[in-house]
User: What shape does this take?
Amino acid sequence: MATYTAVEAQAGIQPKGLRVGLVAVTSLYSLAASGSVGTTILMVKVPKGGTLVSGAVGCTNAGQLTVQVGDGIDPDRYYAETTLSSGMGMIPILQNVTPTTPYTYSLDDTIDAVISRVSVSTLGGAVYLTCVFSMDIN
Assistant: This one.
């Protein structure tokens, strides 16, 4: 149950974009070995005032990897659980959010992938995440 940080979520890195409008960020984290249950990968920084409006998650693992997508407050805010496998493409992640219940961040945070299950054949690979968020005018 380790926590890893992708380059796009490192200290001092902030997505480029205006403070108003849409910002798109794609992040990739390569697992050195098999992913283990409970591993948290901090994937994308979201600044104060950001609201996630679109996103997708995928992986290049040889086996199957089941992840939740959320943030530091709620580990499955955006997707309760999805099983990823090599070559399957990207899975949309806004399963748990409706247009009437968007979440706007009151503090800087990160969008995270948490490994919730792994298959016996899961070997290394990478997890990737694309997020599009809007910025509040304030």
Notes: The longest strand covers residues 21-30. The radius of gyration is 14 Å.
